[in-house]
Amino acid sequence: MTTQTTTTATPLTTLTPHISSNDKTTTDIPTGPLTAPLNFYSPPSDNSTPYNYVSTPPPTLPQRNFSDFTHATEIRDLRGREDDFKASVHGFAAVQDVSSRATRGTFDDETAIREIYYPEVEELLLQHTGAKRILLFDHTIRLAAPGANRAPVNRVHVDQTAKSAEQRVRFHLPAAEAEEMLKGRVRIINVWRPLNPPIAAYPLAVADSRSVPPEAMVGIEHRYPDRTGETAAVRWTEGQEWWYWSGMKADERLLLQCFDSEDGGARVPHSAFVDPRSGEGVGRESIEVRALVFG
User: In angstroms, rounded to a whole number, what is the distance separating the alpha carbons of residues 255 and 37?
Assistant: First the structure.
């Protein structure tokens, strides 16, 4: 079985001070269903093509030209029901008891992340997807704190679309190899984990893919300095089913499937949110590693 790991430069923030899991007890962690505001897509007032600049926009343009529709949303707790969810069906999966050599300090060092944590992510994905090949293409560390380089995203979105998934394959592979890989099944899956568990503030909400119709998905131009990709914003629609994983621990991982080339492939709308029972609390630290999954 052949695998390949590719990385792209991702600016890191030094995450200090570190919050030990010993600073939070299980009694501090809210559990069970709740209702919380989630931010959904609202179109540009002039009906122009929606866009978002990844870095600083040109002087005459805003960072993004669309706004939010905030809706009080019922979010159920998947704790105790982890085995009920499959990425290929629901768009996400909850994996427990994941062993790791990575320490908290690993995630402050770019080289250590690639050399220690990336192989663990690759092994996890091979084990849980049945794929023939994994190509890790980048990662993001997020910190819920003022001035953080990358903060949790509190807007409902999907990282990839069919258009940007194909672009990703062609961007990371030689032309002939990309053409061959696109003939088979292609998935893009993020592996998400907390770095200062257990998670109490800014948990991640995920929607059952089956409850979000295609017409709720809106392509957004994702404008980098050197290229334009595409993400998906999400309109609120009746019947959406939302979940979160209360008190995520260091040995737990969320698999977030952002694209699947198979017909009707599941994709997971997701968003950070403020749990009204814990407020903004201790700043959440997390890492997501993004992977092209072939076969």
Answer: 23
